[in-house]
Each structure stands twice: as C-alpha cells, then as structure tokens.
Amino acid sequence: MKKKSLWKWASVMAASVVLLAACNSDEEGSGSTGGGSGVDVGIVLPTKDEPRWVQDEQRFKEALEDSDYSTEILFSQGSSAKEKENVDALLNKGIDVLIITPHDGAAAGAAVEAAKADGVTVISYDRLITDTDAVDYYVTFDSLAVGAAQAQYLIDNAEGTGVPLYLYAGAASDNNAFLFFQGAWEVLQPKIADGTFVIANSSEAEALSDKAELSRDELSKIIGQVTTNWDPNEAKNKAQTHLTAAADDQKGDVAILAPNDGTARAIADVFGSDGAVTSFLVTGQDAEKASIQYIIDGKQSMTVFKDVRTLVQDAMGMAIDILDGNDPETTGSYDNGAVEVKAKQTDVIVVDQENVKAELVDSGYYEASEFTGLE
C-alpha cells in the first residue's frame, strides 16, 4: 500500500472545483491528476459518446485535483477489448485501486481478474461486473428504485384505462438494464393486469403480463425484444417500426417506458411526429442537459436525476479509505452471479416540469442560462 499524505476527504470535496485547464484528452483517455510518479487510482469509463460519462470524467478530476493521490481516467469507447487494454495499461502504472464502469458486465471479468491478481482493489462503478469473484465493491444508484420511479410516474400521470404502453429497455449486456426494467415491471404489472395499461409492442411482455415477479430468463426475453442498446438511433428505429405496425387503438394517448434520456428524446421525437398520437408520457434518467430542455419544452415527461456529484464522491471516498487502509462504508450488497458484492447505494430523485428548477438549477447542478423557457 502506498503511503502518501492526504487532505481530509471533506476538504477535497469543499475545495475549488475548477477544471484542470492543462488536461486535454483524446478519444480513449485523459491525463493524470495528482502528484507522484505512479498512479494510485485508475478509472475506466465506457465511452465518451454519451454526455453522462464525460460529466463523470469532469467530476472525478475535480474530486482529487487538490490531493496528493493521483488518478488516470481512460475511456473504452464501447469495446470490451479496449477496456481490457485500458486496465492493463493502468496496472503497468502501479495502481492500487481500480474504479471501472464495464461496457459489458460479464466480459469485464477478464480485466478485473487481472487487476485482482496484481493485488488491486476493484470498485465496480454504476454498472455491476458479473460472474466473477474479482469485484470488491460496487458504488451505484439504486437501480431498482430508478425503474420503479419511472413506472410510478406513468401510473400517476396516465388517465383512464386501456392506455397503450410501449416498453423499451437498455442493453442486454448491462446488468443495470435488467434492474431498471425489473424495478419498472414490478410496479407496472398490477396496472397491466387490471387493464389500466395495454402492452403495445412486446409479445413476450404480453405473454408474461400475469406475473409480478420475473426470472432473469423471462426478463431477458422481454428485453431482447425491446432493447435500445442505449443507442438513440436504435431507439428511434424501433419506435418507428412499432408505430408503423400499431393499430389505431394503440395510438391516441400513450405511455412510454424509455430507459434513459438519450433514448427518451429519440423516442419522443418519433411519437411526437405521429399525427395519430394525441399525447404521450415518456420517462428517462440521467438528467442530461438536452433532456432538461425537452422537459421544460414539454417534449419529455420526466427524468430520474442521479446526482453524479454524490456518486463520484462515494466512489472516491471509498478509494481513499482503501488507500488509507480503512474499511469503506457500505449500505447493502448485490449478487453478481458469483459473489455478493458489498455496495454503497445513492438515492435518486424524480424531476419533471414542476421541480426541475429547484432540483437542477437552484441546487447548482446546472446554470439557468443553459436553458430557455425556464421560469
């Protein structure tokens, strides 16, 4: 274990949050922060093509810029092979802690097993690495609660009965996509069973509509039909296909379970351009800036705000505890298929037109000047 002086974590988080002006990054990675010749904490994020992960990169840099611990952030650009290369590169720089968001939860096993073999503590960040015992900790938002919040919003805001329900999910390679969908299904299913909602775009979901709790295999069958792979273009194409095939009674006033903000905007654009769709509710998550503007404009109904400032603070606080030889605080555990992984969970917040200013502008997360029409 490296022994270096460290300012207290509270001081680090309270310090100036000015970005590192000298740190330019290329497509795969970014420079190191902190002092020393080696790297203490290696961070591997899945892609720079989604605003969420670029935002996380910034937060990680801010978290350690005034400490004596060093970190390096690399991006895998949606490739498990590149992810493994990134981990190997960080191991060669002598890291003690690896924080990694896997592109593919199962495929990341080889990368983290190499890290464990080198005596590195592995923290799975936001997405769980599955089917390996080489994961020490998991820092996450409560993924079941995210899906449940999306579903409850649809229930609370839908009117009447027989409302066409369009289901969409994240990538089948991402364990979080299963948790989000599971959380949503368990809330929606009673309202599907009683006729409040009628599933419009998934024969697999229709066949299972009488089951409140689904097995992993049953969830997989539904997600296989409605996956967006977290890709807005794929979400757009699926939505277009579904609406083209939809009967008249599957349009009108509809409800849409969209898994995240990028897919929500793409799906909303498709439904909004169909003259037979008179109104739609559509969910999201991540509070991306573009989706906040959509919410203000009435084109997206809600987003689940996951404050990455808190999640990054939890992850870096855990890493610092490990580097200091202390046991990190955990609040639960997750079964990754091989072991129960100790976890630190962060709460989520539902944001819509009514509270968007209070939660995202008044809290300092975004500036009011970044939006138009905000009252």
From TrEMBL:
<keyword id="KW-0732">Signal</keyword>
<feature type="signal peptide">
    <location>
        <begin position="1"/>
        <end position="21"/>
    </location>
</feature>
<dbReference type="GO" id="GO:0030246">
    <property type="term" value="F:carbohydrate binding"/>
</dbReference>
<feature type="domain" description="Periplasmic binding protein">
    <location>
        <begin position="41"/>
        <end position="326"/>
    </location>
</feature>
<dbReference type="InterPro" id="IPR050555">
    <property type="entry name" value="Bact_Solute-Bind_Prot2"/>
</dbReference>
<dbReference type="GO" id="GO:0030288">
    <property type="term" value="C:outer membrane-bounded periplasmic space"/>
</dbReference>
<dbReference type="InterPro" id="IPR028082">
    <property type="entry name" value="Peripla_BP_I"/>
</dbReference>
<dbReference type="InterPro" id="IPR025997">
    <property type="entry name" value="SBP_2_dom"/>
</dbReference>
<protein>
    <submittedName>
        <fullName>Sugar ABC transporter substrate-binding protein</fullName>
    </submittedName>
</protein>
<dbReference type="Pfam" id="PF13407">
    <property type="entry name" value="Peripla_BP_4"/>
</dbReference>
